[in-house]
Structures are given as structure tokens and as C-alpha cells.
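Entry for NAP complex. Fields follow.
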Amino acid sequence: MTTQTDFIVDKTNLRNCQWLQTQRATQLHSGQVLLAIDSFAFTANNITYAVAGDSMSYWRFFPTQEGWGRIPVWGYADVVESANSKINVGERVYGYFPMSSHLLVNAAGDGKRSWYDQSEHRSSLSRVYNQYLRTEGDPSYSAENEAAQMLFRPLFMTSFLIDDFLSDNNFFGASQIVITSASSKTSIGLAHTIHRNRAGQCKAIGLTSHSNLEFVKSLGIYDEVVTYDNIESIHKAPTISVDMAGNGSVLMDLHRHLADQLQYSCLVGVTHWEARQGAQQLPGPKPELFFAPSRIEKRNQDWGSGVLDSRLAEAWQHFIGEANEWIKPSTTTGKVGVEDIYQLTLAGKARADTGYILSVVEQ
Ligand SMILES: NC(=O)c1ccc[n+]([C@@H]2O[C@H](COP(=O)([O-])OP(=O)(O)OC[C@H]3O[C@@H](n4cnc5c(N)ncnc54)[C@H](OP(=O)(O)O)[C@@H]3O)[C@@H](O)[C@H]2O)c1
């Protein structure tokens, strides 16, 4: 028997959470693999998965008891049992997991680099999330880099893809880009990419809260840093807005201030999840949702196999050294610690200069 521990949250009130302990018979069916989840990163992005759990199907990856959800996270796990001849006990994989001690998957595929979970309940969901990358098949893998991979890999992928999308559209003729939640890792990745590739072509303006102002300024990747209560100080020029915050009143202020100078309005996230507002009539262009997995599929089709990966790897090399200087990992293990970091992040009180790495199992 294996004892599985799950952190579950009330779908109707995310502050309400609990731990679930279940016993599982270890007899696996043919093809199944049991993974022991070692550690995972936890950021505002994971809160977004919960906030959009129903509307964007994030609750469907790791179902649990009625009315409750298991929040998806990115991390590492080890194969502890296998009824799949292509996958050995002891293998380590990177991928998408619940906040749990274990995950049972129906593994398929025999790629040197990856395999995927073909469980019925995941089959209609984006393939990007169902893939498990074998550390043995990744020449760039090293144990020391695991924290950076968990913290930045999915977020920097989004930053890279937003820059690619904007560049593909000639930056919609804009000369500046306003990025909200400027202290978030996704925004930092985007500002870094713009600073490196488009200096002189497009200015990056970071919008942040007073508490994160000094941190964001210290990064040196934004041409200007402005607080949410000072939007009217932004120069009126052709602009793109990239919104990570999803704060209804901030977006309204931005649209009102820039009005017809706003060339494109891109919605990426909802870090300020409690300040969301329903559909409202905004001056200027209608905001459009950016969904990274759709862009990945498009670029894999446009460019052919492996090209996106190698372009991303090149950009990553430029980013990760500096990112590791700016944001330091902090590891917390065990139920009490995991719950504390969850509540801290949910309340918007997590430190911007800290990358939280969690493990459900006390170590
Ligand atoms: N569409 C996609 O495909 C996609 C992919 C990846 C990420 N995203 C989105 O990008 C956003 C950033 O994610 P991340 O993981 O990079 O974030 P993160 O590094 O954890 O960012 C934390 C920052 O977000 C702001 N924040 C977080 N919670 C808050 C709260 N409750 N109230 C007010 N401010 C809060 C604060 O920044 P400020 O003080 O600077 O506002 C904080 O420093 C998320 O919304 C995520 O879902 C979207």
C-alpha cells in the first residue's frame, strides 16, 4: 500500500484548503507508472490556475473529491513503480503535477526525451501539459539547476512567446510596451527579452506596486518603472499593454489614459485575482487573451520540430544567469510549510525576490 497525500482547495473559496490522505493498492495496470513528486515551484501563476480552474479547465488535470481541486504545479518526480516496459523505476522526470506526494499516470510514448500521460481525463487538454521530460534525455539537465527550471521554465517560455508574438506583428507599430505586475517572473522574462533584443525599438515600462518599486528598478531591464497610482505619468505614444495583473481598475486607467494611442491590449494573467472585474467597456482596442500552449502549437507547426526548443534554449541561456541573481530559491517542505506558502501567495504577500520551492513530503 502507498499512502498518498493531496493538498486540495475549495473551488468556491480558495482560502479554504485541506489535506487528504488516501491508501492506494500498489498493483498497477499495464502501462501505468507511479511517480513520487519530489518538489515543485509555487508562484502567482499557480494561483491563476486555481482562479481559472473551471473556465480554462485546469481542475480537469488532477481530479479529486466533488467541489475541491488540486492545483497544478511544475516540478520533478521520480518513478517509484512501473508497469511500463519503456519506463524504469528510478527515472526522474520534469512536468506538470498536482500538489501531492504521488501521481499515477497511464504512460505512453517511448521518446528518449519524453513520454506523456494518456489518461482519458487529460486527453482533450493541451498536450504541453501532459508531457513528462526525462532528465536522462536532457543534455542540459543538472541537479543544481532544478530550482531554476521549476521556477522559470514555464514562465520564461511565456515571456519568450509573447515577445515572439509581438515581434511577429511588428509590435503593432508601438514604440513602448507597458507591462503590469512588473515584479512577476513572467514580466521580468518579457522585459529582459525586450531589453536584450529591442533596445532602441521599443521601450519597456514596468507597472508595479509601491512595495515592489525598488526591486523592479534594481533589475535594470525596464526603461521606466511606474506605480499603479501614477499611470497618468506614462508618456502618450503608440503603446502595447501586456497585462499580467488582471486588475480591472488598473486596466481601465491604462486604457483611459492611453486611449487611441493604445495599439494592442494583451491579457496574460490575473495576479491581482481579487481585483478582477467582469466585462467592461474599455476605451481603445479590445483586450485579447494570450494563451501560451496555443502559441507553442502554432510555432511548432510554423517552424517544424525542434526549432522552437532551440530558439528558446538560446534565449534561456541569456536570461537564466541574471534571473538567478535577482530571485533566490527558498525551499519549504511538509504540510504546514506548504500551506503557509500557499496562503502567502494567495494573499499577494509572497516576496518578489524569492522563488518558492515546495515539497509535500517532509525532508
Ligand atoms: N497566459 C498564459 O499562458 C500564462 C503563462 C504563464 C504565466 N501567466 C500569468 O502571468 C502572471 C504572472 O505569474 P508569475 O508566476 O510570473 O508571478 P510571480 O512571479 O509569482 O509574481 C508575483 C507578483 O505578482 C503581483 N501579485 C501577485 N499576487 C498578487 C495579489 N494577490 N495582489 C496584488 N498583486 C499580486 C505582485 O507584483 P506587482 O506588485 O508588480 O503587481 C507580485 O510581486 C500570472 O497571472 C500567470 O497566470 C500566464
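NOTE: The mean pLDDT is 94.
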